[in-house]
Design a protein that fits this description.
By secondary structure, this protein is an alpha+beta fold. Helix content is 51%, strand content 18%. The protein has 22 helices and 21 strands. The strands form four sheets. Strands 11-13-18-15-17-16 form a six-stranded mixed beta barrel. Strands 3-9-6-5-4 form a five-stranded antiparallel beta sheet. It has a two-stranded antiparallel ribbon with strand order 1-2. α9 packs across α20. About 3% of the residues have low confidence.
Amino acid sequence: MNTKQVEELTGITRQNIRYYERQGLLEPARETGNAYRDYSKEDVRRLKLIKMLRMLDMPLKEIESVLNEEVSLKEAAIRQQEALLKQQRQLQAAIDVCVSIHKEKAEVIDVDDYLEKMENMSRNGGMFAKIIDDYKQVSQEEQQRQFSFYTEQEINTAGAFEAELKKYAVKNGMKFELVEGGMYPVFKLDKAVYTAVRVLEENQAVQSDSEGSGQMSGKTKIICKRELRPVAETKIPERRRRFFSGIHTIVVNIKRHRAKSILNVSVSLFIVVVMTVYMGNLNSARQQIENLPKNLPIKAEIWNVAEDQNSGLFIREEVLDAVYQSNYTKDINEGVELIGFPNGKESQEEKEEEKSYSQAYVPGESYWIEGVNTTGCIDGFKEKEIAWSEGWNWEKFQKEQDVCIVNQEIAKQEDMKLGDILSLSLQRYYQDISGVSLYSEKLEPIQSEIVGTADFTSLDAEIAKPDILIPLENAKLIFEKNQKPYFASSLSFQVKNPMKLNVLKKEMKEAGLQSVVQGAAHSYAGAGLKMDDAVFIESVTSLQKSLSLLEGFLPFVFLVVMMLGYIVPNLLLSGRREEYAIMRALGTSRREGSILFFMEHILLAAAGSAVGTMIGLLFHTADAGSAFSIWGLFLICYALGAAVSMGMFGRFSVAAVLSHRD
């Protein structure tokens, strides 16, 4: 048929038909004699195909590949689909920018800002889209690279193998060319290069002839895999293509072996949940030990050695220095006792007479005065129980001299008021050489302003309540002015770091303190140290035993995870030797195949363990830091075991596995 008829049949103009001819897409026959073009039905079909593909915006170069059967129509259509989708994304981004400009309220838009945004969108979005497109392209190529068919004939020789391949090519109207013979032949089908391998299906028997050699019988599966296209043709860098190809293989294998994949994920999830609970208990034990000093504070007091008196003692300066200078003490409560006589009631005879301890202080006739540095010197007493003069508080009280706080009951009995000045004659206690008897001697009188009254009614009835409180430093100054040696009457403190309890006890022992002994001879010397540390020691000992037990099992836990990392892949790979052998026979190296199988198991283990980690966080069996540490440790241990398993997995004969002789 002539050009005009072709125009009418195809709807393509004469100019375009000529253009396609010049591009080599069409070669019509020529009539003998006049050299007019004579288009055949095949030429018309080619033109219609060209028109269809051009309407899909397919480049002429790609159309030429389709017409020359270098690329199948389906493959070309998939490529064009990806190109059109990419254009669609770019157009949508441009549309979004146009909409944004339209919504601008300002008359003059910031062009630089929009240019920067568009360049960022193009750079970041284009890079991400490029990665996605490359993966899709590689995935599609991998899906189309491999095909298989069955044959009823036995394939025991290279010639039989070649014959079956030729038969397949003829049946499908394809051009066959053998490149390399053998039991793993390399051949061409329509210019595409393939490698083939034959596999005896698992349900087929293996017979033995009279000489004892194995013979295959029944159906044989032939698997053919096309070689990769050149990088220049695919436009994907070799490393990226190999990476995406590996990802595609892993994804396909996970889907194909869905049940085993679920089992791998489940095992990993269970292991991590157990590890999270275990590590949660381990961290809890550590945390309890760390918090024990805060939850079970230890109080230490100075007593006499007989443990029958903790006030009215004589505590030496060496002991005070050791307590104050230690790095393991805090909240020190120090007190000193004095006797006061109001308004000079003490007679001249009494002033000159030396009195015993029992004769010195007489309630109602004298006052028990105590110099204190904290309210803690009186058990249970708080500053809130003090009614202060305006502008006064405990901190200011400790810094002043000649001031005092009066017991509220005494203030009522003696009609004392805030701001009154007390004139007091003083006496102090001292012990004899034996330390068994206690006497008093006079000191210079003092005058003190009442700056507060203390309500002791809320305290335990058995707790002794002083009549008057004065600042400790003021009391020490009184001793200094009277040139009398200072001894504290009571001393207690909190242990700052109970975990260093033994170090503190050693320091106190070096200062002259000793353990209290019930039933020992009575003495007023403050030489005994008493600590309420029994509960703390019992608790910390119990927790440390639990912690040691848990820590002792820690290496065993990691060893179990490594063993599971070895055993689980071994079990899951037990039925996949043929799959691995086929990969090897079709050109995959042992190293590459092992890496793909290894990564498949590690990705599944990572997914399962991540879910286990989330479960641990959800039920608060571990904090975020511990949970993710467990996840990382699990993957490391599991990967070590899986690496050993994969190293041993591929040690078999590929030919023996494919022929079921292994």
